[in-house]
Amino acid sequence: MLYICVCVQEEAAPMDEPNKPRHGSMDKDMAELVIPSLPLETRCPPFPLRQYGGFWMPEPFLPGMAAARAGFEPRPSDVLLASFPKSGTTWLKALAFATVHRADHPPRSLDHPLRRRNPHDCVDFLESVFLRPPAEDALAALPSPRVIATHMPCSLLPERVTADDAGCKVVYICRDPKDALISMWLFTKKTLAAAAMDDGNPPKQYTLEEALELFCDGRCVGGPQWHHVVGYWEASRTRPEKVLFLRYEDMLRDPVGNVRKLAEFTGRAFSEKEEAAGVAEEIVELCSIDALKNMEVNKNGRQEYVNNESFFRKGVAGDWENHMTPAMAARLDKIVEDALRGSGFAFGDTSEST
Description:
Blueprint: H1 23-34, E1 40-41, E2 49-52, E3 55-58, H2 62-71, E4 79-83, H3 89-100, H4 113-116, H5 119-122, H6 126-129, H7 135-140, E5 147-150, H8 159-162, E6 169-174, H9 177-199, H10 208-216, H11 225-238, E7 243-247, H12 248-253, H13 255-265, H14 272-277, H15 279-286, H16 289-293, H17 296-300, H18 326-340
Parallel strand pairs: 4-5, 4-6, 6-7
Antiparallel strand pairs: 1-2, 2-3
């Protein structure tokens, strides 16, 4: 999913206060009282964005976020996959689902769910589930271990997830800002084209220059991107047993090693028998971009807002060089460098990876 805005102020107060209601009334309060008061950005298609808690989030999903924060009851065995949009989300969903559920669904099985369903159909977004009440019933019906995803920043996650005694695990994937921008821009153009085809209208133009300007201002889905990343990076350093921080570029270089890391972190390390049988390698093969894009469901299937094929492009690092001028890249690099100064985090620095 890609969450997809004229600003009246810079910060927004948190939506849910002490003694907050359960999510049914929270949805109503959000829609009628809170959302209209949040800063608005209308230039980022396809959805308007509202600034909430320092981040620009898609307006249609804010009630789901508030409801999830109020009503989500994590289980100790839950695995929550977090990401900034277009940072390897689809790949992480596939890898995590195949790894966590390999006992019930061996990766070589011809009937594996990932051979019949898109990864976004196998692993839903938490905030989307809470837009479809009764969410608690839908989540309760999922057998453990549940694998769920989110684009929410770390600071906006439900307190039951971030508490020191939280049992569930969080896995975050980050990506170089330039590649995240290019992937987001190209994906947005596809969503606009799909919407135009549905409506019988010509697609709205959305140039890279427009996307870069907004991205540099942090006015994009989940933005600022670098703050989204640093929030989870800091959480992984203070709670390494609960938050695993992965880098997309590292995963491309060593997918099998990172699948082993994912399995161990979630409490499902590969046995000696599985290692001898090459199960980790089979999972990587099943979830490779070439394998997934050639699945019939991903060639011809569709999500509500875009065709499934749009989720599988190149799956490489450094593709920004084919789209951005050196001046564009230098501008974004400088903004990110200045924003991260003093944080201890740097994109491309793998010395802190765990």
